[in-house]
Design a protein that fits this description.
Blueprint: E1 11-15, H1 19-30, E2 34-38, H2 44-63, E3 73-75, H3 79-83, E4 88-91, H4 97-110, E5 116-119, H5 126-130, E6 139-144, E7 153-158, H6 164-176, E8 180-183, H7 193-209, H8 215-232, H9 235-241, H10 247-254, H11 273-287, H12 292-313
Parallel strand pairs: 1-2, 1-4, 2-3, 4-5, 5-6, 7-8
Antiparallel strand pairs: 6-7
Helix pairs in contact: 1-2, 10-11
């Protein structure tokens, strides 16, 4: 299948204009695209246009594309009208398997086969959506981070019948627009980001239920502690850095779950030699040849700037 060059896409369709769909709409508009939106809910167009207007100042600060305008938004009277002429479709209805399967089958039936269809699902396998499609090879998950118009991460996930070329195209398209797409290597419930978030949220409920910390206190533990590091490096590279000059192998020895009681309610996988090798190899690749001292200097400068920003933006910080 010959998909269009990402830079040649000028018109996209957004189906479902709630919390996620409205932010996708604002983002696509800010990148100089024409956006045709559709949502059958009463008052959806008015809410969408209001949401786009609220999002617009931040998008302009981040750098809107030449020709970007809220006037390039149209709202379809029906699904067919919104899909007409679209070179890409971002579906963003609620995460209901039956609803998504029916809707994406309808979208598939009305779009040319070279149009990639991406679902904003938070963790449902695209294989579910492909069951009723004539062209399942072009259906992917394109899961954004909320708020979708600002955070750069988009998880791109293939289903059982998705063509690799469609995944390649979706990754290239999102990257062309300034997002940071993550091609998920294998389909699994929750994908990557939400599995990580789920682990934190699960522990959050334990902390609150056991009166160990209030919600405000545990939020402070993240936003004033580990969250600052994660914003720059992510948990895997932080694990490497806590090993100091000894790297991830030293960290694994010091925090070996076979010797130290599990502090949380999560269960560790077996710490096999293969897993250790993967952790060392992948974090070593992340280091990109730069010294630990270089990364520490970068981390510290980042943290100082975050603290300064919080002092400016948060009264009393």
């Amino acid at each position: 299948m010959a998909y269009p060059e990402p830079a040649q896409v000028t018109r996209v369709a957004v189906v479902g204009t709630g919390l996620i769909g409205s932010r996708w709409t604002a983002f696509f508009l800010s990148q100089g695209l024409d956006v045709a939106a559709y949502d059958p809910a009463s008052g959806a167009e008015e809410r969408l246009r209001a949401d786009v207007t609220r999002c617009w100042p931040a998008l302009e600060r981040l750098g809107a594309a030449a020709g970007a305008s809220q006037d390039r938004l149209t709202f379809g009277a029906g699904l067919a009208q919104a899909l007409a002429g679209a070179a890409f479709v971002q579906e963003s209805v609620p995460d209901d398997e039956g609803l998504k399967a029916r809707l994406i089958a309808d979208i598939d039936a009305q779009c040319p086969p070279e149009v990639v269809i991406a679902s904003s699902t938070s963790g449902i396998s695209p294989s579910v959506f492909q069951a009723r499609c004539r062209h399942p090879e072009r259906v992917v998950a394109g899961h954004p981070s909320n708020p979708a118009h600002l955070l750069p991460l988009v998880e791109v996930v293939a289903g059982e019948h998705t063509a690799p070329a469609a995944v390649d195209w979706a990754v290239a398209f999102y990257r062309h627009l300034g997002k940071r797409p993550l091609r998920v290597r294998a389909t699994a419930p929750g994908f990557v980001m939400n599995r990580l978030q789920e682990a934190v949220w699960r522990e959050m409920f334990h902390l609150v239920n056991d009166d160990i910390a209030t919600c405000a206190e545990l939020d402070a533990a993240v936003s004033d502690g580990c969250g600052m590091r994660w914003a720059l490096f992510g948990p895997a590279f932080v694990y490497l850095m806590q090993g100091g000059p000894g790297g991830v192998r030293w960290a694994l020895e010091q925090f070996d779950p076979a010797r130290i009681a599990d502090w949380s309610h999560n269960v560790y996988p077996p710490l096999t030699a293969d897993l250790k090798e993967k952790l060392e190899a992948q974090t070593g690749e992340q280091a990109a040849g730069r010294s630990l001292e270089d990364w520490e200097a970068l981390r510290d400068e980042f943290l100082v700037r975050v603290i300064e920003a919080k002092r400016e933006l948060l009264e009393g910080y």
